[in-house]
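Narrative of activities, Objective 1.

The group set out to show that a structural description can be obtained from nothing but a protein's sequence at a throughput compatible with the screening campaign. Below is one input-output pair from the validation batch, recorded exactly as produced.
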Amino acid sequence: MTKRLQVLLDDAELSELQRFARERRMTVAEVVRQTLRAARSEVATPDLADRLATVKRAHEHQFPIDDIDVVLGEIERGYLGARPQ
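Output recorded for this entry:
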């Protein structure tokens, strides 16, 4: 099933898009579809190896560890300018 998408462009943008499509012997709709597909693939999620490498790098650091309620309380006191107890 296909759905319709409405995109509002000013006259100059539409003219440029029409010229671009005409030069490539494509419809404006196909140019838009291909552009959206390309943009979506550029922001694809990183592969598993990249994600695991990130987790391993994070694990090498020493982060403060405590009960979540204690940590949240410290953060809140910090926002309020209160000193730790």
